[in-house]
Amino acid sequence: MKFTTRKAALSGLAIFGAAVLLAGCASAPEESDGDGGEALDFLPCMVSDAGGFDDKSFNQLGFEGITKAADELGVEAITVESQSETDYAPNLTSLVDQGCDLIVTVGFALSAATVESALANPDIEYVIIDDAADNDFDGTVDSENIKPILFDTAQAAFLAGYAAADFTTTKTVGTFGGMNFPTVSIFMDGFKQGVDYYNEQKGKGVTVLGWDGTDGLFTGGFEANDTARQVAQSLIDQNVDVLLPVGGPIYQSAAAAIREAGRDIAMIGVDADFTVTDPSVADLMLTSILKGIDVGTYEAVVAAGEGNFDPTPFIGTLENEGVGVAPFHDYESLVSDTLQGELDDLGAAIIAGDIEVKSYLAE
């Protein structure tokens, strides 16, 4: 069983996990017969967070998912970018006013605005990526017409952390995030657990900088700016030679700092396979920690368009292939000959429950 590649369809997103992604509850709209029949009466919409749809990360994956779904359904999607947090509520209001049947919001930062909009518009279906829509923390989704799509990325980050510990020559690896939200720190936590497990199994002493299991280094936002570059530089100055930036475009600042350092430092991507989505950093990428955001979005939009919207939360795991790690690509010849086999075994052990990876989604 391989965990270094994500299957093209990620079909597990539709059939496994905490809930089945495609179960019906909405009434079926009229469909086109594909031969000039009546067009499908369905308008899917999406609003990004401040990272924008060209972030090479989770906003872009969401955009790709809704675009593919709209093409398959034979409809046109409305997509709106947010420039800042103050845009979230107005953008949602605009989509409601345009008659959207389904609104996908991309990112935990939109949680409050999504819940408010969903409560005010119970006849509209909502999907939120990377958030449980549980702002009162009572363990349930705050509005019955919201479907959360979540990813237990700690499992995949565990494998990436193990790989980083095996690859490092300075015995020091680092991570930093945009803001200390659960959907950010879950990567950092899994990464640290993977390094710690490597140390236990191998009798090594690889150090993780930037996350202690509770708190760590954060830029205060998700922009590729000088603050993010300085945070990355602070880790590089401490002899880190594998770096995991978690927070959309902040990886671009980390890449700039790595190039300025003038020594061999590998980077680990998040959400998407950065070697594919941003070839300009391919030479820096050890691997990437993957979320099936594009497939999860596609499946949810198609289901809603076919009258089968199901608000039950979905959680992506290694078992259902909702999360995973990318190939080593340019680093394949540089990692140890035994690493791939070890990662395969670790992935199988996590799925079997023989290795526990802790996260807020596994509690």
From TrEMBL:
Keywords: Cell membrane, Lipoprotein, Membrane, Signal. Residues 1-28 form the signal peptide. InterPro entries: BMP_lipoprotein (IPR050957), Peripla_BP_I (IPR028082), PnrA-like (IPR003760). Its main location: membrane. Residues 46-358 form the ABC transporter substrate-binding protein PnrA-like domain. It is found in: Cell membrane. It holds the Pfam family Bmp. It is a lipid-anchor. One of its GO terms (cellular component) is plasma membrane. Belongs to the BMP lipoprotein family. This is BMP family ABC transporter substrate-binding protein. The lineage of its organism: Bacteria, Bacillati, Actinomycetota, Actinomycetes, Micrococcales.
